[in-house]
Amino acid sequence: MTRIGRRIEFFREEAGAMTLWLLVWSFAFLGMAGLAVDVSNAYRHQSMLQATADAAAHAALVVLRDGGTEAEARAMAQRVARLNMDTTQHAEVVEVADITIGAWDGTHVIDSTDDNAVHVVARRDDTSQFPVGTLFLHFVGVRDIEVNADALMVMDYPNCPQDGVFARGTLSFTSQNRFGAGLCLHSQSEISVSGFEADPENPLMPDIGDGTAFSAPDTDEKPNGDFKSSNNARAEMEAADAIRRRNYDPAAASEENVRARINATRTEVEGIVEVVSVSTSLTNSNNSRASRDDEGDDTSAVCVNFGFLRVSNPPNKFDLQAKIDDCYRYFYLVCSRDDTITLDGDTDLTDVVLISDGCALKTTGSDSLFLFNTFIGVDKPGDASAISFKGKSINPGAVDCNGLGSITILTTGGMHFTAGTNFTKIELISTGDMKLTADAELTAGISMQSYGDIDFSAKANIQGCATAGPEDQTEFVRVLRLVL
Question: What are phi and psi of 278, to 5 degrees?
Fold first, then answer.
């Protein structure tokens, strides 16, 4: 046989071919087995690391919450991590460098004197010098898999219900006060309470609904904290578990923000209705948008459209109802002197916007004032009685909880409501102090904010719209939240 014939015969030889194919398929099977076994094992370790990181961060934050130091918190995190993943099997999965303590700014944990967050990384990787080893993937060149997990725990407060009383200064209550469920009663400075009405179902306890809490910053950092009361009242509150810690930003009640909101409302109204200006004589100027005859008499008992009336230097007694009857619903009072304008006579402010620039507003006790879908804004900074309404003449606009703020009263000065105030679904914002004398009834949706003090005298009754549930019991408690 020629040499060429022998070469052809060699290439036709099939002996040993099966061994080559078995070798190729063996590597394929090892790869698939590695995906099934080794990758699953890596995921199992990752789940263990996640649970360990969560537990370690939680434990460290509990230490901080209870007054422990950062060193104690780190030590606790490592202790919990070792209990979860024993070092003889997994090495040290949480090193000191993997524990970050500080303040959570919504994006990162930053250095702070007020630590409220712990970030923990648990790892089995090259950094820990102990990655997860492989069994089958080892034969295809993958000797280990790096796995890690992290957890961020933050001390936080649940969202406050819509109903509440917030003071940048002192919040004061005297005797026989009652509070409904789900209320926030907060002072950023000091709370002063003399006593409560007894709970009708439990005479030994104060009448405070579920989920309602008095709160102030750092009430537990000093012997008396920022909470002052008679001994009996404090004992009642502690028994009701009603003293809480909370920080509140009262910026909405600053002079700048209150004035901006008043001006924004005026600008909005001026953009949609015709403005009619009158002098101090306040003649019965007719609203051209209403249906009238040539003499200015009504030709219809119902106002079809409403106008905006600008009044410069109104008289000290202003018969607002007469202008409302003339189909005006939007009023802008401008005073060039230190005036107090009395809303004279019985007045129905339904669907009325009343804005005063420089004029203090007051009512008299002999006249009634009905509010519903009403906006009142008084820009008179420094005046302690920029708004002074006789409480018994103020009637509620609604008795249900379908929405908050159908009545809005704002001032850059102070507010004063005398005995018997009766408000429902109302928003009160005052840059100055806010005072409500005896028998103040505020029900079905209340939001009160003051950049100064808020002072209730005896027998205040504040009832909110929040529905109390099990979660409301922890309102204002510094809770631990896992940030995903």
Answer: -135, 160
